[in-house]
Structure formats: structure tokens, C-alpha cells
Design a protein that fits this description.
With 198 residues, the chain is of the alpha/beta class. Helices cover 32% and strands 24% of the residues. α1 links the parallel β1 (2-8) and β2 (34-40). It is globular. The structure holds pyroglutamic acid.
Length: 198
């Protein structure tokens, strides 16, 4: 089987994005599938274009898009992508959006990954994980929505979803009130979740 695994470049003043670091480490561990890793820019539309091109060129059986959600405690598997961009935070190109993501698209689209099984698999290795009903209104939700819409519009037989990962400890040195999880534990969580697909 083939899996497309994406992470994001850093944003918001951070020098790393653990989603990309964990995507690379998870891909190294996966021996049950061919994995393509892609680092997406934190930019509206450009990120979707790059993700969709990877889907069309690589023709994966499954797609796991990942991004950082600083403040979350563990890996969370997103259930819903909404057709709204609504964040005062500018993307890495300096653009802040308060609009629909894709004109004419449905209000929401749902992950087609087996989320409950994925959470159970992570719990089984002794780590917390949960299903989230809110992927935010920024670039992660935007990419999640854009990729699901592309798959749906083109009737592609691809399971796709999104996982948010927390900060790693090094990112919280100057914000000790924020939770974090080691890169190793994030990687183990992503590996256990993807192993459900084998
Ligand atoms: N997290 C942001 C965008 C990129 C990333 O890693 C988000 O949650 O929208």
C-alpha cells in the first residue's frame, strides 16, 4: 500500500514544526507501506495545490495530513473539515483570511480514516490520543478541507484525514504552562495509528 504523509513548515515564530519532524521519523519506521512525505508551506491555497499534486502524482491508498496544534496535550485525529477560513493570524505569506475556503463546496467534509481504531491503537501502546471535532479555522483546516474536496470531487478511492500534534518540549521552554509531548511519543502515536491501515 501507499501512504502520503504530510507535515507543515514552522510558523508563528517557532523554529520547528513537530508535525514535519514526526512525519519524517514515522516514515522511516513504516515497513508495511511505501510512504511519500511532503512538507507543506503554511500558506492558504498554495498548501492545497502542493498536497493535491502529491495525491495525483503518487496515487496513495491513504493520506494522513498533519500539523501542529500548540496547547493540545497529545495527538488528536480530526473528524471534520469546515469550509471556512477565519483566523486573525496571517499565514507565512502574510495573508489573514475571513472567508469561505472554496466557493460552492459543502459546509463540511469528514475524515475517511478509521479514527476510533486509530485512537485505540495509540492507547494500546500506552499513549493518550483523541478524536477532535475542531481542526481550527487556519491553514490546517484549509488543507484538510481542500484535500477531502479534491478526493470527493474526483471520486478517488483514497482514505484521508488529518492529525494535529502538540508542541515538543523544546518549544515550551519559554512557555512552561503549555503541554508538550516528546517527538518520540508523537512518532510512536502516528506509527501506531497508520499501522491500523495495513
Ligand atoms: N498548524 C496550523 C497550520 C500549520 C500547522 O502546523 C493550524 O493548525 O492551522
Amino acid at each position: 500500500m501507499k501512504i502520503l504523509l504530510t507535515g507543515f513548515e514552522s510558523f508563528g515564530g517557532e523554529t520547528v514544526n513537530p508535525s514535519w519532524q514526526a512525519a519524517l521519523k514515522t516514515a522511516e519506521k513504516i515497513d508495511f507501506a511505501e510512504v511519500l512525505t511532503v512538507c507543506l508551506p503554511v500558506e492558504y491555497y498554495k498548501s492545497v495545490e502542493i498536497a493535491i499534486k502529491a495525491v495525483d502524482d503518487f496515487c496513495p491508498d491513504a493520506v494522513l495530513l498533519t500539523g501542529q496544534a500548540g496547547g493540545r496535550t497529545c495527538v488528536s485525529f480530526e473528524n471534520i473539515a469546515v469550509n471556512i477560513a477565519d483566523s486573525d493570524t496571517p499565514d507565512n505569506a502574510g495573508k489573514a483570511l475571513h472567508t469561505v475556503n472554496f466557493t460552492g463546496g459543502p459546509d463540511r467534509l469528514f475524515s475517511s480514516l478509521p479514527l476510533k481504531e486509530m485512537v485505540d491503537a495509540v492507547n494500546k501502546i500506552g499513549l493518550p490520543a483523541y478524536i477532535s471535532q475542531n481542526a481550527g479555522r487556519f491553514v490546517c483546516n484549509h488543507v484538510f478541507y481542500g484535500v477531502l474536496k479534491h478526493i470527493s470531487d474526483n471520486n478517488l478511492n483514497i482514505k484521508a484525514g488529518f492529525a494535529h500534534v502538540p508542541f515538543i518540549p523544546a518549544q515550551t521552554v519559554n512557555k512552561p504552562e503549555k503541554p508538550s509531548m516528546s517527538l518520540e511519543n508523537i512518532t510512536e502515536s502516528m506509527f501506531a495509528a497508520l499501522a491500523v491501515l495495513r
